[in-house]
Amino acid sequence: MRTVIQTENLTKTYGKARGITGVNLSVGSGEIYGFMGPNGAGKSTTIRSLLGLIQPTAGNAYIFGKECAKEKTRILEKVGYMPSETVFYKGMKVKEVIALSAKLRRKDCRIQAAELCERLRLDVEKKVEQLSLGNRKKVAIVCAMQHEPGLYIFDEPTSGLDPLIQKEFFDLILERNKQGATFFLSSHVLSEVKKYCTRAAIIREGKVIAEDSVENLIQSNARKVTVSGIKVLPQELQESAKEVKKYGDQIHFLYQGETGRLLRILQTQPLTDILIEEPEMEEIFLHYYQ
Amino acid sequence: MTIYCHEIKQNQKNLWIWTGAVCAMTIICMMLYPQMREQADSVSQMFSQMGGFSSAFGMDQLNIGDALGFFAIECGNVLAIGGVMFAALLGIGMLAKEENLHTAEFLLTHPISRIRVIAEKLAAIYTLLFVFYLANFVTTGISFAAVGETIPWKELFLVHLANLILGLEVSSICFAISAFLKSASAGAGIGIGMLFYFLNLYGNIADEAEWVKYITPFSYADATGIVSEGALDEKMILVGMVYLIVGIFLAFFRYARKDIS
What we know:
The complex is a heterodimer of chains A (290) and B (261).
Chain A: E1 3-14, E2 17-28, E3 32-36, H1 43-50, E4 58-63, E5 66-67, H2 72-76, E6 79-82, H3 94-104, H4 110-119, H5 133-145, E7 151-155, H6 163-178, E8 182-186, H7 190-196, E9 199-204, E10 207-213, H8 214-218, E11 222-228, E12 241-247, E13 250-256, H9 259-267, E14 273-277, H10 281-289
Parallel strand pairs in A: 3-8, 3-9, 6-7, 7-8
Antiparallel strand pairs in A: 1-2, 1-4, 4-5, 9-10, 11-13, 11-14, 12-13
Chain B: H1 2-10, H2 12-31, H3 33-38, H4 40-48, H5 52-56, H6 67-100, H7 104-107, H8 114-146, H9 153-180, H10 186-205, H11 218-221, H12 223-229, H13 234-255
């Protein structure tokens, strides 16, 4: 599989402030790749480095085998980008913004734009300052998709979109993906990532802490454990137990590690009940995030 | 030329407002001339004897009772200040607005190099300024005719040409400054314009402050000096052109590498 996005120890610092540190990502052709992390983790910094908006302090980023910092213009010809905050020039009509975007690409995208606007139910005669967040997002989707690029980079694309448009949006993604396009999707919505992404990376405090298929990420060896009969967790579990919560006489926690070890430790405790189950996806990601 | 056309369109309203305002002030000013002509001798004598104040505004060099002298003394400053304000606002805002209004992410993620963005934006600024000064030039000529005076085309052309160069220089300097700042406001542009203007006044009043003429572009765009000499100060214009070129170079150098946040 051809690599579309590749980063090698990508690092960006802002003076003493942390940006991203040693980010290594690899996105293959035709993938729908999820990029997740809490706010301020470094998702946007990574995306900005890929798009050439910021210069990395160290490391390299490549798109379609070309170095982002040096061949930005040629790369961007084949990239459609949708930022998380969509702002356009005041006073312009939706159709003018869409036409401006096509002109900046020196392409005639009128047919594709009309089709996208119809599917997303976008009123092209409105002025951009009259648009709601959801409608501004729709304009950004049209601008990112009308030239039918090979790579789409979407930063939190569905925030503000109503469920019907979200469905239409993902239908579009799946259609373009079937045609061979690659998607890099930064998202907070885990159900979206689970449903649509083939692989994903999780970034926390500027570092990629996990990168795998979504299936493997979800099937982590973390277990959701509920025990009754003890008031505090045994000392040996303190390090491997996360998200410890007490409800009445029950203690809930996420256990990361070998299940045999967990059982051996709990065996020594005066438990009245025990439940070990697979955690919900949200709980796993919460575990990654913290 | 997409960005160029886009910027011309985006700034059209500003252009008409500034052009209309400065042209209107020139017309109003010139309409006062017939009254002034009747009291020419006394007013001219009074104005020329106001010491440093006369020097600051060039009133010691020209006769205010003469239409061209009146224009240079009274309307020259309106054109210079109005033009510099417009040029400074265009220069400081052209790049900075993309970051201030968060449209940079839209513009700079299209397949267009930063060098091209800068070049087309600069071209748009220069075109807008050219139209502004051309409209003022024509309006001033009409104003002369309206008050029954012969239109001194040569002097008017020189004054407006010098002011066009002044506008180009100030806009280029502000453009370069905005490339270095994270968030450049209109106030910064106006501040720079006013600083240049007051430096020129200071240079006109104080003999020991001759050096400021090498800093402020108002030194070569002073209408009273151009009208009294009948020519442009080529040396000072050359100095101004150096600032203009350095400004453009710095803007290209900085903005091509700037992190857009």
